[in-house]
Each structure stands twice: as C-alpha cells, then as structure tokens.
C-alpha cells in the first residue's frame, strides 16, 4: 500500500442537519488529503431499512465510534473501499447497522472515498 493512502486519523462529530436534527459528520485523514462527509437521516423508517442510529441516537453513535470503530480504521488502506465498508459491517454485526448506526457507516464510507479522490486529485462521482 502506498503510504499516502494509509488512514492516519479519523474522527466523528455531531452536527445539526437541514431539518434541525442531530446527526454525524465524519472526517478521514490521509497523508496528503482529507475527506469529510455527513449523513442526515431520511424521512422513511420502514422495518427493513438500515437503522439510522443505535439506541441513544446520534450522540451514542459518536461515542460508539470512539470506543469501538475508530481503532480498526487507523492504519487501513483507504484505497480498499470494499474492505473499509466490510469492516464497518463486521464491527456492527447486526445486519442492519443497529449497533453503530447506518448514518455513521455512511458518513465514514463517503469520507473515506472523498479522501482517496482528493489524494488522487480526481472528482468523486
């Protein structure tokens, strides 16, 4: 793995979305680039949908990130997007992101993709 694609740091903070609802914003930092993404909650809440947040909401999602998720991301190869996403699924283990929250997983995944695109100096689409 080229050193410039090693994930050096990642963080999550709570922000307020356009509906005035608390959500999460994730940042993934590489040697030469950073990616940031947030994930507001959708309006639908069908029983087969991914859970936006674990029990306790966006604040719990942030706390779980720092206690359970972050340590496994540091040092990962950011180029391996499938591996990154698989890690999030595995650390959650529920099948519907009810443990870490789908919003956290989405924000982290997109932040990683943006960090790689920024490092490669290409648009993300």
What does this structure look like?
The protein is α+β, with helices and mostly antiparallel strands and 125 residues long. The chain has a single domain (3-120), classed as Enolase-like, N-terminal domain (Enolase-like, domain 1, 2-Layer Sandwich), CATH 3.30.390. 38% of the residues lie in helices and 18% in strands. It contains 3 helices and 3 strands, in the order βββααα. The protein has helices at residues 57-73, 81-92, 102-120; strands at 9-16, 22-29, 34-39. The protein has a 3-stranded antiparallel beta sheet. Strand 1 (9-16) and strand 2 form a beta hairpin. The longest helix is centred in the C-terminal third of the chain and has 19 residues, at 102-120. It is globular, with a radius of gyration of 14 Å. The model has no long low-confidence stretch (mean pLDDT 94). Residues 7-125 form the Enolase N-terminal domain.
């Amino acid at each position: 793995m080229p050193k410039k694609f090693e994930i050096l740091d990642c963080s999550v903070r709570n922000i307020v979305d356009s509906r005035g609802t608390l959500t999460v914003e994730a940042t993934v930092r590489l040697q030469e680039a950073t990616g940031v993404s947030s994930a507001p909650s959708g309006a639908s809440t069908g029983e087969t949908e991914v859970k936006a947040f674990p029990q306790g909401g966006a604040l719990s999602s942030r706390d779980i990130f720092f206690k359970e998720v972050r340590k496994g991301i540091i040092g990962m190869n950011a180029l391996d997007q499938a591996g990154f996403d698989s890690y999030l699924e595995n650390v959650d283990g529920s099948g519907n992101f009810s443990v870490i929250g789908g919003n956290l997983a989405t924000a982290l995944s997109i932040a990683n993709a943006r960090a790689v695109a920024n490092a490669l100096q290409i648009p993300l689409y």
